[in-house]
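thought: user wants a sequence for this fold. calling inverse folding tool.
action: design(structure=
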């Protein structure tokens, strides 16, 4: 499949808890979303893969590449970097995100898995036929127990989690207003997704896309976040946060103009390796306006204040 089709499938998968209606996905196929680390780039690479369950603590995937003569990129990635992340549908109707270690089955084990596949998923069993190469059969063994077995969060753990989630959101706001790509990225997991209206795609790459556009279009911006509703479920949080974002437009022929957006950040935060960061963000727009601004205060009065900057020379980076 093309990259754009894969993106569509991943977006639907994450939005529906793993229920896929895309006609390009054969009926009866169970899909997972696999995130590997690029063998050459060391960057996260995410793609949908067909799988079948292998006991309670593993799944099996096939590196078929739709009959191509060479192995798919995701297989080459996991050979170099065997630790991967897998998203699979959970009994609750949501997605379970698991860390796993990949290994290629060989010999009798491979034969046994193919035989089991013919019973468990007959469609998948046809994927191993390839006249050009032996198609790798890959076992992804989970490195952690099922989330359903985890103990409920204590009140203290909830308070700490909520504080860290809010801290990530305030880092994001400072990063946007100070045009600090690194600070924006610090709020996102590497395989995250962001829907900012005109931008829909890789959350971690959002900073590199938005900062040059913000610098070119606006003289100044201020992002305010208000009340947050945080629903915690161990290592996952559903978060709704109200925001108002002000943007002073550049290149206005007469006077000054202000663009305002007001809405909510609909976020999915995940705690991985002890850090709460964005796994998904969708910006919900409730209202917006563009209006003329009045005259600024006289220069002699403005000059008495410390001027804000949109870079790391701003005062806040030197308070400590």
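)
observation: tool returned 320 residues.
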């Amino acid at each position: 499949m093309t990259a754009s089709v894969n993106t569509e499938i991943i977006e639907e998968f994450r939005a529906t808890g793993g229920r896929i209606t895309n006609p390009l996905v054969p009926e009866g196929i169970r899909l997972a979303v696999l995130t590997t680390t690029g063998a050459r780039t060391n960057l996260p690479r995410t793609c949908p893969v067909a799988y079948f369950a292998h006991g309670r603590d593993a799944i099996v995937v096939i590196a078929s590449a739709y009959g191509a003569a060479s192995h798919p990129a995701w297989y080459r990635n996991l050979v170099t970097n065997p630790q991967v992340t897998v998203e699979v549908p959970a009994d609750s109707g949501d997605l379970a995100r698991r860390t796993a270690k990949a290994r290629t089955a060989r010999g009798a084990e491979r034969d046994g898995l193919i035989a089991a596949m013919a019973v468990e998923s007959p469609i998948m069993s046809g994927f191993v036929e390839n006249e050009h190469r032996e198609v790798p059969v890959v076992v992804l063994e989970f490195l952690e127990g099922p989330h359903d077995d985890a103990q409920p969060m204590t009140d203290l753990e909830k308070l700490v989690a909520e504080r860290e989630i809010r801290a990530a959101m305030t880092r994001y706001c400072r990063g946007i207003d100070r045009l600090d790509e690194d600070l924006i990225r610090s709020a996102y997991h590497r395989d995250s997704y962001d829907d900012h209206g005109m931008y829909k795609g890789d959350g971690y790459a959002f900073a590199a896309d938005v900062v040059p556009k913000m610098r070119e279009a606006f003289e100044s911006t201020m992002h305010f976040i208000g009340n947050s509703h945080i629903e915690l479920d161990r290592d996952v949080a559903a978060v709704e946060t109200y925001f108002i974002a002000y943007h002073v437009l550049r290149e206005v022929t007469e006077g000054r103009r202000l663009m305002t957006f007001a809405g909510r950040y609909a976020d999915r935060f995940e705690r991985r390796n002890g850090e709460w960061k964005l796994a998904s963000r969708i910006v919900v727009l409730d209202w917006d306006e563009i209006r003329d601004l009045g005259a600024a205060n006289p220069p002699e009065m403005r000059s008495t204040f410390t001027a804000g900057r949109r870079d790391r020379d701003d005062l806040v980076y030197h308070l400590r």
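thought: summarizing for user.
answer: Here is the designed sequence. Residues 3-149 form a domain with the Pnp Oxidase; Chain A fold (CATH 2.30.110.10).
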